[in-house]
Design goal:
By secondary structure, the chain is α+β, with helices and mostly antiparallel strands. Among the domains are: about 220 residues, ATPase, nucleotide binding domain (Nucleotidyltransferase, domain 5, 2-Layer Sandwich), CATH 3.30.420; about 110 residues, Substrate Binding Domain Of DNAk, Chain A, domain 1, CATH 2.60.34.10. It contains eleven helices and 28 strands. Strands 1, 2, 3, 4, 10 and 11 form a six-stranded mixed beta sheet that branches. Bound molecules: adenosine-5'-triphosphate and magnesium ion. The site of magnesium ion has 6 residues, from loops.
């Protein structure tokens, strides 16, 4: 099968979507073989069987709760492995599970477009740190893709909104309420230049929290109606999760929805929920999103004119109503909130493909073939062919910021502290060098522990949960105590981190790879 298109993938916590940019300059989300254009990010793994991914895995989660893996995105880059199975006897990795979801998206897209799915851009939440980004890229590689880049979800949504709009520069907010997370990002759009100003997120706020609140309400009403008080087994909990999500979606259109609960012949009932009741039990969740939105508006300081609604949960009328009420100055813009991230990623993939970074291109061709030149020529010919099919008016230019502060662990007046070197909201790429002194004489290895945190402090107390990895400087063991060591932390424009150390005395430079087994493939 020939490679006709490049693709953008929104790898979501609850649903994923793959899109491409076609000959008519339209972004098209690919329907899965089951029909819908979004695929549940659910995987069923059983030893000796092929993995089952998407709607089929979600439908059977009730029957196979111990073998069904959901919300894997909240583990990626954090856990190296995790257990599943009835007694937790089986092991897999978040990267492997994510790769299964990506493979399924690739197969569905190939089936829909009749094009090989090779070159892709995958999106990540803006708040993802270095380990989560690297792990996501690794999942793409393991799925068999050539990952052209990783792009932040709000930037992708803004690209879909702003591409080729020849309007005045504007500052917008991207309000992304998805299935598992909430992201709020301020961006400046000037032509096809997309600059992130600042971002905030709540990693545990999304549609699933609304589902859980609805389940609690349904249980309460069921117990009041039937007198049942014996608890719910895991099959019934799974059943409720599916039926309450459906009821929530119905409530986005209708004023009432009903959920059937069956425990036994004696205890069963159809529970009716009104939109008012649903809004009431979920108002505290919405308040959290509104409060973070206000934080970002206040931090930016410059006027913001529009708010872009992204993520399936923004279909809930309560979200739009709260924004209208709390921020009457903002114009609300909502266009396919469940596709806009993957569509923007597809535009970005196309842009990256037809305007490749010459250095990157060279490096790639050298990596892939022994005769780099030949590959380069081939690639250029392909690009010309693609360019003949479609053209973009202007090249897309993205400016991202550090979404967390980046620092190293040091001894500060004898107390361990984290010293932030690159601060949150610094434009990327960024690189900062600081000089420290060795703590002991004749050290042969100095571990540099790297931390990312959502704060703006120059120094803060050590919190091991914030460590993202460590880089080790190997020394020859001759340095006295107090010898100067330069440490340089750099973040590339796609959010990946690099560490360099210099033994100033001997002028020996050590490029250190960050080690973190959450994204290691070994
Ligand atoms: N019409 C609707 N009304 C209410 N909620 C909806 C509707 N359609 C989808 N949702 C909810 O939107 C959520 C999925 O949204 P989306 O696909 O944007 O999330 P995601 O990308 O998986 O998550 P994240 O961005 O957090 O990784 C689910 O909780 C789903 O139930
Ligand atoms: Mg999403």
């Amino acid at each position: 099968m020939a490679e006709k298109y490049v693709f953008g993938i929104d790898l979501g916590t609850t649903y994923s979507c793959i899109s491409y940019f076609d000959e008519n300059m339209q972004c098209i989300p690919c329907p899965s073989m089951e029909g819908p254009t979004t695929t549940p990010s659910v995987v069923r793994l059983e030893p000796g069987c092929d993995p089952v991914v998407g709607q089929a895995a979600k439908n059977t989660a009730v029957i196979y709760p111990d073998h069904t893996i959901q919300f894997v995105k909240s583990r990626i880059g954090k856990d190296a492995t995790f257990n599943y199975g009835a007694d937790g006897e089986l092991t897999t990795t978040p990267i492997a599970v994510s790769a299964e979801i990506l493979k399924k998206l690739g197969e569905d897209a190939a089936n829909h477009t009749n094009s090989e799915v090779k070159r892709v851009v995958i999106t990540v939440p803006a708040y993802f740190g270095d380990p989560e980004r690297k792990a996501t890229a690794q999942a793409g590689i393991d799925a068999g893709f050539d990952v052209l880049g990783i792009i932040e979800e709000p930037t992708a949504a803004a690209i879909y909104y702003g591409m080729n709009k020849s309007e005045q520069p504007e500052n917008i907010l991207v309000f992304d309420l998805g299935g598992g997370t909430f992201d709020i990002t301020a961006m400046k759009i000037e032509g096809n230049n997309f600059t992130t100003l600042t971002t905030e997120g709540d990693h545990d706020l999304g549609g699933k929290n609304w589902d859980i609140a609805l389940i609690d309400l349904v249980k309460q009403k069921f117990e009041d109606q039937t007198g049942y008080c014996d608890g719910y087994d895991s099959d019934i909990e799974q059943d409720l999760l599916i039926s309450c999500e459906q009821a929530k979606i119905v409530l986005s259109q209708a004023q009432k929805a009903s959920v059937a609960v069956t425990i036994s012949r004696e205890y069963r009932a159809a529970i009716e929920i009104t939109r008012e009741e649903f809004d009431d039990v979920t108002s505290a969740l919405l308040d959290r999103a509104i409060s973070l939105t206000r934080t970002v508006i206040d931090r930016v300081g410059e006027p913001i004119t529009k708010i872009l609604m992204v993520g399936g949960s923004t279909y809930m009328p309560q979200v739009r109503e709260a924004i209208e009420r709390e921020f009457p100055q903002l114009e609300i813009y909502s266009n396919e909130p469940n596709h806009s991230v993957s569509k923007g990623a597809a535009i970005f993939a196309f842009n990256k493909y037809v305007n490749p970074d010459p250095e990157e291109l060279k490096e790639k061709s050298e990596r892939t073939t022994s005769s780099g030149e030949k590959a380069l020529v081939c690639l250029e010919e392909e690009i010309d062919t693609y360019k003949n099919i479609v053209t973009l008016e202007n090249e897309i230019n993205i400016v991202t910021v550090a979404t967390k502060s980046l620092g190293v662990r040091i001894l500060f007046n004898g107390t361990p502290k984290i010293n932030n070197l690159i601060f949150k909201d610094t434009q990327l790429p960024a690189s900062v060098t600081a000089t420290y002194a060795t703590n002991t004489a004749n050290a042969t290895r100095i571990p540099i522990r790297i931390f990312q945190a959502n704060n703006y402090d120059e120094y803060y107390d050590v919190d091991d949960d914030l460590q993202i990895g460590q880089a080790v400087l190997e020394l020859d063991g001759t340095l006295p105590q107090g010898a100067p060591i330069d440490v340089t932390l750099s973040i590339s424009d796609d959010g990946l981190i690099h560490v360099k150390g210099i033994d100033v005395t001997n002028n020996i430079e050590v490029n250190a790879n960050i080690e973190n087994d959450a994204y290691s493939t070994k």
